Amino acid sequence: MTTDAADGSGGDGRTVSADVAVVGAGTAGCYAAATLAREGYDVVVAERKDEQEAGHIACGDALKGASNFPDAIPKSQIEPAFTNTDVDHGRFEIPQEDTVLEIPVPGELAVIDRWEYGRRIIDGATEAGAEFHYDTVVQNVLQDEDGTVTGLKAMRKGDPVTYETDVVIDAAGALSILQDKADFEDATFDTNVTYSQFCSGYREVVETEEPVPWDDALVFKPTERSAGYLWYFPRTETEINVGLGFQMTEEPMELVDDLKRDLSARSEFQDAEVTDKLGAALPTRRPYDSAVAPGFMAVGDAAGHVNPTTGGGIAGAAYAGQYAAEQAVEAIEDGRVDDEAVLWEYNERVMDHFGARYAALDVYNIFTTAYDVDDLMGLLAALPGEQLAEALYSGSTDMSLGLKLRTAIKSFGHWGTIYDLYQTKQLADRLLALYEEYPTHPGAFDRWQARRDDLMDEIYEVVDADPKY
Questions:
Q1: Residue 2 pLDDT > 50
Q2: String of DSSP letters for 232-249
């Protein structure tokens, strides 16, 4: 990595040359940087926060897939941030039905201290050889006359800096400014992105005087409208991450008031102390159809790599970072960073690993926008726990005939909704199958998108929901 001083000609500042610039020091950015550095490449991570605040990110702190992370940052390095590994199920509180639904969650679960975890992944990437530039706000994307991304313009600690790179990896989070600044008109990169496809999250860390009685569960509760949900995730038996997620089309303060009312009504939080508050945006949409452009890849929240039904995205972001870094290595080695076809395998690996599932799960998000919250909660209370858990995390599930009959009896009064849900499930399964046929090269991309869009039109018609994309 080389750094040149300004030539004194008037304000261009310093120039940093590196093989790859990663924007954002979150999970995806750190795993991408660590993967590249371990392969011997010069990589710089531009992070807008200062060194002390870096890694402090609004998050529910629940981690699914805790047992399975890329090796670029050893799991042993991040495990001390796992503060509760005894959680093993979800607890859905449904006041409309005066019931609590306990459902198993497949795979290893943990609740983490997200700030400690953030520090540890930064340390891991640093030890691998990545260089972090804190207090660095990216302002623009550099592109050559053919549209290939060649670097960044930024302000670092108040001074201008230019990053000249072979590849830029966008790990700047939801609604990344890089995607607003770059011209991707001639690329496959997904520009069909609007704020209504995202939600806002707000969370507080609360210290209780006595242990909560549900320290082995992730607690969920609907807000008064179907636009969001409340959560109570126990970092420890007395340190609880409490928060809510809601669509950006909703009034945030009204929903924050929902959280405050619920907190004040729960006996376990009497005389509790709030130790931290933070908010953020996250995608509740399908993964980007394509997250590559010449010289450019997006990862993690910046590419919609989040389970749209739960908001979980840490493990997927780690793998997206690794996959993007490995594809950057191949493109640099081939001298073809300007060729989307060389970067394309990154898209394929994401879709194969988790992207297809997330796209199918987004169909259920669309379904919920068309129904009253009381009807949805009544239906939720009637569904079998194991099948509900499977649907939430895999995008599909099956029930035996006997279980279907028992569910039908229990869901009396919601049969119209359950029939609509059955039709939606059939369409979600078809969408999952289509994503499993994701194209192996960009030349087949337009045809695949057309097939997907036709299927989405069927979904909107059956669900009677407004188009999301």
A1: yes
A2: EEESSSSEEEEEEEEETT
pLDDT for the residue 94: 83
- Encode pLDDT of 7-18 as tens digits: 433 456 899 999
What is the per-residue pLDDT for 258? 84
| All residues at 6 or more sequence positions from 313 whose CB lies less than 8 Å from its CB, including other chains | 27, 282, 300, 301, 305, 306, 307
Helices (H), 292-414: 314-334, 340-350, 356-368, 373-382, 385-394, 401-410
Cα–Cα distance, 22 to 298 (Å, whole number): 10
- pTM value > 0.85: yes
Cα separation of 313 and 355, whole Å? 11
Here the tokens at position 457 are 């039109």
Mean pLDDT of 278-287: 93
> Quick check: 267 pLDDT over 70?
yes
CA–CA distance, 301 with 318 (Å, rounded to integer): 11
Phi, psi of 360 (to 5 degrees): -65, -40
Residues with Cβ within 8 Å of residue 450, at least 6 apart in sequence: none
Q: Name 73's Cβ contacts closer than 8 Å, sequence gap at least 6.
A: 30, 31, 34, 120, 121, 124, 125, 128, 318
Contact 242, 265 (CB under 8 A): no
For residue 89, list its beta bridge partners.
104, 217
Per-residue pLDDT, averaged over 201-225, amounts to 91
**Of 357 and 225, more confident:** 357
Of the chain, the end-to-end C-alpha distance in Å amounts to 41
Residue 370: pLDDT above 50? yes
Task: Give the Cα separation of 64 and 241 in Å (integer).
Answer: 16
Which among 272, 264, 260, 278 is positioned nearest to 212, based on CA atoms?
272
**Residue that the structure tokens 């001639």 belong to:** 186
Between the alpha carbon of residue 272 and those of residues 204, 205, 211, 212, 448, the distances in Å are 12, 10, 11, 11, 53
Residues 430, 437: Cα–Cα separation, whole Å: 11
Instruction: Quickly list DSSP for 435-463.
Output: HTT--SSGGGHHHHHHHHHHHHHHHHHHH
**Residue 289 structure tokens:** 């159809």
CA distances from 396 to 363, 376, 424, 464, 469 (A): 11, 18, 11, 21, 22
pLDDT of 291 reads: 98
Tell me the C-alpha distance between 284 and 307, whole Å: 7
pLDDT number for residue 228: 75
Q: Which is more confidently placed, 415 or 212?
A: 212
pLDDT digits (tens, 9 = 90+) for 403-423: 344 444 344 344 456 667 778
